[in-house]
Design a protein that fits this description.
The chain has a domain of 402 residues: YVTN repeat-like/Quinoprotein amine dehydrogenase (Methylamine Dehydrogenase, Chain H, 7 Propeller). The chain contains no helices and 58 strands.
């Protein structure tokens, strides 16, 4: 939907060149390409699964609220249906960096106006940020590209809103950046320039502006780069000053969030010794009487005490919200409190006394059972920085965590409020040809899920025994679908097997030593008698693969396997495995059950680890190689020879599904390009022709991880996204 695109490797411009061109209107509901089939796209329901970095109630419109996430876009709450509506699914492949929402703002006088500051990474290889503005609550957008970078998935992503509508003038907006100071717009976000008079000097490695908040007619800005002051204000929109008397010291190094009580004219500020969400060990809460300038420390509990087990109780403070209906009522959250677990503190007397809401909380996660974390009980939360109180209901309180958004209507009973909100970064998809589940999936945050129903969170929660926090491998024996294996970063071993199609699991009896530090992808041969496990460190460094022929009881090294490659099993012949050495562009194959590998083809595309090899179901030696911008290649002789598929300009990932009626070959699904755009395509004639099956309103940024069709339902496709969970499409 966006007219201009942000380059993935755009170069950061200097602060002096911040002025940006005006955005161009973008309309929702754009037509499908001629000849493309109509598809309906929905999320496979897990529920939340990612870091909710901000929640914002509109101060004057009952039932209107927004949420932002670090990599999965923004959402609007639909009070009528009790669910979140995604607002940025139209962001395309080239603009993937804009799915991270750094900040959001609403106009108190105009409920239909919404502003988003988007940009996931501030690194040199990421594109610049953009400001999106809407006059219809996010249904359609206008866009202004910035010449600076934002960092919605960087440290400090859970701090306050860095975007603000000026309380004196609805046409004026402020935007705090990480490395380029404070920006100002006087035309509702269409153009931006550095704010004159702002005294803080940004650094290339600091946090810059951490929050912007209106207090009456004044604007306050938090600063995270150090110096003699970290809180500034302006009363006229031109002259800025350091707030006198502000707290100092380690416990008040970084202002995290702030909230203004208009009844008492007091500003509450939470502080920590770092921006979070990780790495905080000290913090405090302070109250400023904005009229007289008096500061009062109102910290509920000072970090640094002793836990029940004798360890240090270290943490910072994160979220803060005031009650718009009850003067002096305020709620704050702890953050990064791992020993005693994070909590919310509530005060009804301006911070003189506090009560921990965790102590009396009753958590109901029946709608999203994975939140039991394999322990039979949920956690109150961690990474609590997003916190909001409904201005129309004093007992309606919500807070975000690293995995969900909890809400209450009575300050005692809490449940996830995440219907429609899916933020998993998905890495693995398997659609079994038989059994109770139509989908088994793995993600970077919540391990493996077993979906018997696509429309509800898995009843058994995440795969346990062991619990894995990030899935690195998932494979099913093609001729024995009840046998499934998985790998990832686990609590008691990094690999497991299942004999009931992925419903229950048991850890491998043993694992190679390298598996503790670098669990990578895994494959099982067609009958499940052999496992081949590859190992890759977080930094991409590969290691030799290991083989097991006794269900993971013993392992032996395979020296001839290319280090760090992804093993692929032949789906028909149990003696065959394949591996693609992306560094050299070489296809290797094994015909002895994975004991040894020999070179079959050379001279194929090379360069990095993103190329993907897939084997067509039910056939021996029928291989497809997605080679990114180098296109799609096919071999029908076990990798001895490859031919480029002329119908594809680019291919990033490819999978198979049930064949069309009358067709003799499985349906092909890919994320790639047959022309100018990268999209999701289906072919029913072995890649002779392709039809686009997504549309401009359903793009989800970067979708190049994995895709697969359903072997039992023609036309159904499952698509992994990097921040919008699992999307599945079906012909209408």
């Amino acid at each position: 939907m966006f007219v201009s695109s942000v380059g993935r490797r755009a170069v950061l411009a200097g602060a002096a060149a911040v002025a940006a061109a005006a955005g161009v209107p973008a309309l929702a509901g754009r037509a499908r390409a001629a000849g493309s089939p109509a598809y309906r796209w929905r999320n496979v329901v897990i529920g939340g699964t990612g870091f909710i970095t901000g929640v914002l109630f509109h101060p004057r419109e009952r039932g209107l609220a927004y949420a932002r996430t670090d990599i999965g876009g923004a959402y609007r709450w639909d009070d009528r249906t009790d669910r979140w509506i995604p607002l940025l699914d139209h962001i395309g492949w080239d603009d993937w960096n804009l799915l991270g929402v750094e900040a959001m703002a609403v106009d108190p006088a105009h409920p239909d106006r919404l502003y988003l500051a988007c940009g996931t990474y501030a690194q040199a290889w990421a594109g610049n940020g953009a400001v999106l503005r809407s006059d219809d609550r996010g249904a359609t957008w206008q866009r202004t590209d910035l010449t600076v970078k934002l960092g919605a998935n960087e440290d400090g992503r859970g701090t306050g809103e860095r975007l603000l509508v000026d309380p004196r003038d609805g046409d004026t907006l402020w935007l705090g950046t990480r490395h380029d100071g404070l920006l100002k717009s006087t035309d509702r976000g269409a153009t931006w320039a550095p704010a004159s008079g702002f005294p803080a000097v940004p650094s290339a490695t600091g946090q810059g502006v951490t929050l912007l908040v209106a207090a009456g007619r004044a604007v306050y800005a938090g600063w995270g780069d150090g110096g003699d002051a970290n809180l500034f204000r302006t009363s006229d929109g031109t002259t800025w000053e350091a707030v006198p008397g502000q707290p100092s010291g380690t416990a008040a190094r970084v202002p995290v969030r702030a909230a203004y009580d208009r009844h008492t004219r007091e500003l509450y500020v939470t502080y920590a010794d770092g921006p979070g969400p990780n790495g905080q060990s000290d913090g405090s809460v302070h109250r400023l009487r904005t009229g007289g300038g008096e500061w009062t420390e109102v910290t509920p509990v000072r970090p640094g005490g002793t836990t029940g087990e004798g360890g240090a109780d270290t943490f910072g403070y994160g979220g803060v919200a005031v009650d718009a209906r009850r003067p002096g009522t305020v709620v704050v959250s702890t953050n990064n409190r791992w020993a005693e677990v994070d909590t919310l503190y509530r005060s009804t007397d301006g911070g003189r006394s506090w009560r921990s809401l965790k102590d009396s909380a009753v958590l109901d996660v029946s709608e999203t059972p994975y939140l039991n974390w394999g322990e039979g009980r949920p956690k109150f939360g961690w990474w609590i920085q997003a916190l909001a109180l409904d201005p129309f209901d004093s007992r309606h309180l919500v807070y975000g965590t690293g995995a969900t958004l909890y809400g209450t209507r009575d300050l005692k009973h809490w449940a996830p409020r995440v219907r429609g909100l899916e933020e998993a970064s998905v890495t693995q998809l398997v659609s079994p040809p038989a059994g109770r589940a139509h989908l088994i999936s793995g993600s970077r945050d919540i391990g493996v899920m077993y979906h018997e129903r696509l429309t509800s969170s898995p009843a058994h929660g995440m795969a346990t025994n062991p619990v894995t926090g990030s899935a690195t491998g998932l494979a099913q024996a093609a001729r024995r679908p009840a046998y499934v294996v998985r790998t990832g970063w686990g609590d008691h071993g990094n690999g497991a097997h299942s004999h009931d199609g992925g419903r229950t699991w048991a850890p491998f009896a043993a694992q190679p030593e390298i598996a503790r530090d670098a669990p990578g992808p895994i494959a099982t041969n067609a009958d499940g008698s052999v496992l081949l496990w590859s190992f890759v460190h977080w930094d991409g460094t590969g290691h030799p693969a290991y083989r097991s022929a006794d269900n993971g009881t013993t392992w032996s090294r395979v020296p001839s396997f290319p280090e760090g490659a992804t093993p692929v099993a032949d789906p028909a012949d149990p003696t065959r495995f394949y591996a693609y050495d992306t560094g050299t562009g070489t296809l290797l194959a094994s015909t002895d059950g994975g004991r040894s590998f020999t070179v079959r083809a050379t001279g194929l595309p090379s360069g990095d680890s993103q190329f993907k090899l897939a084997a067509a179901p039910g056939r021996t030696g029928d291989l497809w190689l997605s080679a990114k911008g180098n296109g799609l290649y096919r071999s029908t002789d076990g990798g001895a020879h490859f031919t480029r598929v002329q119908s594809c300009r680019a291919s990033y990932t490819l999978g198979f599904g049930k064949a069309a009626e009358g067709a003799g070959y499985p349906a092909l699904y890919q994320v790639g390009s047959t022309g100018a755009i990268t999209a999701v395509y289906r072919s029913d004639d072995e890649a002779g022709t392709w039809v686009r099956i997504n549309d401009d309103d359903h793009q989800w940024g970067w979708t190049g991880e994995t895709v697969t069709g359903d072997p039992r339902v023609y036309g159904r496709v499952y698509l992994a996204t990097n921040g919008r969970g699992i999307q599945y499409g079906e012909p209408v």
